[in-house]
Amino acid sequence: MGKKKLIVSAAIDSFLEKGIHKTTISDIVREAGIAQGTFYLYFTSKWALMPAIAEVMAGKILQTMKESVDEQASYDTQLKQMIAAVFEVNRVYHEVQAIVYAGVASTEHIKEWETVYAPIYDYVSSWLTEAKEEGEVRDDIQPEKISKLMIGLIEATAEQIYLYDTDKEAEAIVQQEEVYQFLQHALQ
């Protein structure tokens, strides 16, 4: 593992253990097993880590989507699989997601959000383009724009459940179906 990835991993662990505000750079470098000066070769502050952590999480979403979506399945099944993939990442990594949102929202790094999520948007946009060509979705949709709306809706719903709701699993099942029905209606 490269030093930058090591720092990001150590920061995630430290933030989960102590919280963002109580974690120091010394905590992060101790966890990573590197010198403090090495940290500054990659990041200017602990807050500058947020886009890198967000990138790790976006990568997990994209990887889970690619692994979960059966390219041979019907459009409906693929949509359900995409929704389930985003919910799964939020279920497993809800604490890290909370850190990312708190950290990115409280810094100037929020401007980098679109760049971090670009690979996910591209994946969904390509899927929508293919669905459009096959007549599965309306002709008038704009895949690039709709992909952002879709991911925003799916992720916000999953976050609501895994960050705030108490009966997570039962609610997740209900909300996945609601998101699916909503998107089906909107796209057709």
Structure in a nutshell:
The protein is mostly helical.
Q: How would the blueprint of this fold be written?
A:
Elements: H1 3-18, H2 25-32, H3 36-42, H4 50-68, H5 75-92, H6 94-105, H7 113-133, H8 143-164, H9 168-187
Helix pairs in contact: 1-2, 4-5, 4-6, 4-7, 5-8, 5-9, 7-8, 8-9
Feature tags:
188 residues; mainly alpha; Arc Repressor Mutant, subunit A; Tetracycline Repressor, domain 2; 0% strand
Protein model, in words:
The chain is an all-alpha fold and 188 residues long. The protein folds into 2 domains: 3-43, Arc Repressor Mutant, subunit A, CATH 1.10.10.60; 48-187, Tetracycline Repressor, domain 2, CATH 1.10.357. Helix content is 76%, strand content 0%. It has 9 helices and no strands. The chain has helices at 3-18, 25-32, 36-42, 50-68, 75-92, 94-105, 113-133, 143-164, 168-187. Helix 4 runs antiparallel to helix 5, helix 7 (113-133) crosses helix 8 (143-164) and helix 8 (143-164) packs antiparallel against helix 9. It is elongated. The termini are far apart.
